[in-house]
Amino acid sequence: MGLMNGVDENLIKKIPGAPIFMTSIEWVINASRANSLWTVTFGLRCCAIEMMHTGATKTDWARFGFEVPAASPRRSDVMVVAGTVSKKMAPIVKRLYEQMPEPKYVLAMGACAISGGPFLYDSYSVVYGVDKIIPVDVYIPGCPPRPEALLDGFIKLQKKIMTQKFRK
Amino acid sequence: MNYQEILEKIKTKVEPVYAKEDLGVLNAEIKSSDIRTVLNYLKSEMSFDWLNFITAIDWIANNCIEVVYQLFSNITKDRVVIRVKLDRNKPEIETVSDIYRTAEWHERETAEMFGIKFSNHPYPNKLLTIDGMDSPLRKDFKCDDMKPLPKD
Predict the structure, then answer these.
(1) ipTM of predicted complex
(2) Spans of all domains in chain B
(3) What is the tens place of the pLDDT at every residue in A65-95?
(4) Angle at the Cα of B55 (from B135 to A121), degrees rounded to 5?
(5) CB nearest to B148's CB, from A87, A88, A122
(6) CATH 3.20.20.70 fits B3-94, yes or no
């Protein structure tokens, strides 16, 4: 029952002597969403190397339900903006975000995606944070963040998904 | 070949404006009208078959832009740097992309970063920057959303 780790006891009612339990439809939908997040396969700069490492064997993110990097943005749920967003790249990042189906989530990974980072001053080519072009759910600081920090950001995103209300 | 021999050979074709040795490499400044003559000669007769890069320097105090060509020879393992000074208000120089094919992208990048016109270039389009941004690597470049570095 990996799904029920850290879940409030009141949300799930087990029925004694039977392999069923009762819960709200909202919890089921949120838990399905939170435990099968597919990421868009794209990375912008050096943070992408750390993101690939997080997906690889040592800190395998499929353990927590992030599964595979989707081959197309139309199949994916979460977008990890890993790296500096330049002004030339910004329309393409925005188009990828718009191609993703709802519900969709965005993680800003690293100092550059949060605020522009080391390129904050005297730069003619950098967007000062990816939140200037698309909405961001979780910010992960670091330059680059360690794989543990990225996993922590993903788990924070799962917690956020579990609190959202059912969409009609 | 040492730098003096290379300089003597260049002098048989054109007269350099200024030449000096820097870390064992010849730095020869020539007139902008001579650039194709010199590079043709260096490639065909002195086996400088490799163009390392083309870049430019903005000398805002002297009101000039200096275009730098670095050449390398895979046969004699020699290096040479050719420099050309252009007028900063209207920088224009002829392309060398038919002599060295790699110059095509180097010239496009230099052209958009410093606002230099490379005449007779086969594809004079923008390569890296967004539309509406001109010569961002010039010293007096200003951009609307650019944050200046705090002084202290």
Answers:
(1) 0.72
(2) 3-94
(3) 887 888 899 999 999 999 999 999 999 999 9
(4) 50
(5) A122
(6) no
